[in-house]
Amino acid sequence: MHMAHRCSMIIRKIGINPYVNVPSGISRAIEKRGYVPVAGTVNGKSMRATLVPIGNGKHRLYINGDMRDRAGVDVGDRIELTLRVDHRPRIVPMPKQLAVRLKKSRTAGEAWKKLTPSRRKEILRYLNFAKHPETLQRNIVKAIAMLTKRGGKKSSLTGIRV
After folding, report:
1. What domains are defined for the chain?
2. Is residue 1 predicted with pLDDT exceeding 80?
């Protein structure tokens, strides 16, 4: 899918998650199964997201709060959507302080390597969300503690099991 595909859809909701089901024709044009990174617009406002597979070669796009706010829409509203496969890398940077702590603690470093890429990315996003250096440092301490415990208990950091 090199060109942008356009459609008009109404935002629905599953549980607490607003979404649109991508038309079958667009899912076929993507020519990719599984999770697909996309870029495009919602009512003319740019966005980057990931299409989620829902079976039979079809995809769903979750319309997060930022996307809804920027486009001025909510559940029940009709949106004009453009989508194209996004080939830009989706790398989440590792805070320097975390990298230092992972090198200092062999146990934490090995536990980090054993996490799935999606869990590492979730932790990095959480850490990068910190607005103040003190908050980042406190959250890094929590992450290292979570990685060194390895007891399978849920972490208060992000709710993930390690």
Report:
1. 5-85 (2.40.30.100), 96-149 (no CATH)
2. no
